[in-house]
Amino acid sequence: MNAASSRLAPNPLTLAVVRNKLKAISEEMVETMTRTCFSPILNQNQDFSAVLLDAEIRTVAQAERVPIHMGAMPLAVRMMADAFRGDLAEGDVLMANDPFWGGSHLPDVTLAMPFFHAGEIAFWVALRAHQGDIGGISAGGYSAAAREIWQEGLRLPPVKLVDGGRLRKDILRLVATNSRKPEDLEGDLLAQLAAVRIGHARLSELFTRYRGEEVAGCVQAMLDGGEAVMRAMLAGCREGRHSGLSHMEFAQAPGGLLPIPVTVTIDNGRAVVDLTECPDQVAAFINSPFANTRAAVMVAFLYFSGDDQGLNDGSARAIEIRTRKGSLLDPVSPAPVGACTSSTACALIEALLQALEGADPARAIGGFARRFRFALAGQDRGGRPFIWHYFFNKGGTGGNAEHDGWANIGGLHNPGGTPSPSVERTEAAYPLLVEEYSLLTDSGGAGTRRGGLGGRLRLRYVGDRPAVLNASGEGVLVPPFASQGGTAGPGHAYSVEHGDGCIDRLGVHDSGVAIEPGATIVCISAGGGGHGDPANRPRDAVRRDVAYGYVSEGAARTVYDWQVEATGKT
Amino acid sequence: MMVGIDVGGTFTDLVVAHPELGLRFVKSPSTPDDPSRGVLDALELLAADLGRPLGEVLADIELFIHGTTVATNILVQRRGAKLGLITTAGFRDLLELREGSRDNRYALRVAAPEPIIARPLRREIGERTGFDGAALLPLDRDDTRRAIEDLRAAGVNGVVVCLLHAHRNPEHERAVRELIEAAGWSPFVSLSHEILNREGEYDRLSTASVNAYVGPGLQTYLNRLFGRLTEQGIRVPVLVMQSHGGVLPVEDAGRLAVGAVTSGPAGGAKAGAMFARALGLPRLVTYDTGGTTTDVCIVNDGVPAERDRTDLADMRITAPAIEVNPLGIGGGSIAWIDPAGILEIGPQSAGAVPGPACFGKGGTRATLTDANLVLGLLPETGFLGGRFQLDLEQARAAVNRDVAEPLGLSIEEAAWAIHVLASSRITEGIRLATVRRGLDPREFAMMSFGGAGGLHANEVARDLQIPSVIIPRFASVLSALGFLAADVRRDRQRTVNAPINSLSAHDLETIFKDLANEAHAAMSSSVAGQGDGETWTDRVAECRYERQIHTLPIPTKAGDTPFDLERRFTETYGELYQHSHPGEPAIVETCRVSVYSPLPKLDLPRYPVEPGADAARALCGKRRIHIGREVQAPVYRFEYLVAGMTIAGPALIDAASTSVLVLEGSLASIDETGSLRISDQPA
Question: Where in the numbering of this chain does the Hydantoinase B/oxoprolinase domain appear (chain A) (predicted)?
Answer without folding.
Answer: 11-534
